[in-house]
Inverse folding.
């Protein structure tokens, strides 16, 4: 172990939910599932793990494309979840790259990511019924305040 340049794995808390979630995902299977959307020519693409992890983080934390990319730079757990071994100081991609990735993988690819998310939730996500709270709060108009 090098004390000057420790890896994220050595520095982070193994009990953190993202640290543990990262170990639950078969990232090699994710790479092979998404290989069909990539070609060997043209502009080099961002790694599949990075793009899929950003979309999962976006969903988990209810963030916009811009916010997930900004928080990625600030959060070593986001970076570790995305496959980085050392802390990075610059954004992993432009937020518009997430839009391009979603277009590239299409509905089928997004469904793969959704299925992965459901599998990660375990039995809780695979219940036969779901309870929804449809309570609506009335909007108070400014004229009603007086």
């Amino acid at each position: 172990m090098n004390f000057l340049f420790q890896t994220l794995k050595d520095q982070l808390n193994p009990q953190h939910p993202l640290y543990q979630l990262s170990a639950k995902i078969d990232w090699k299977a994710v790479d092979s599932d998404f290989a069909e959307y990539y070609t060997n020519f043209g502009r080099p693409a961002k790694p599949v793990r990075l793009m899929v992890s950003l979309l999962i983080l976006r969903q988990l934390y209810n963030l916009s494309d811009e916010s997930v990319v900004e928080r990625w730079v600030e959060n070593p757990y986001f970076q570790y979840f995305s496959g980085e071994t050392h802390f990075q100081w610059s954004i992993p991609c432009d937020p518009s790259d997430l839009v391009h990735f979603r277009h590239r993988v299409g509905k089928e690819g997004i469904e793969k990511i959704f299925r992965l998310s459901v599998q990660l939730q375990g039995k809780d996500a695979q219940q036969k019924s779901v309870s929804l709270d449809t309570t609506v709060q009335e909007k108070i108009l400014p004229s009603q305040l007086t």
In short: The helical segments are 8-11, 17-24, 27-34, 48-60, 65-74, 76-81, 95-121. The mean pLDDT is 85. The radius of gyration is 19 Å.
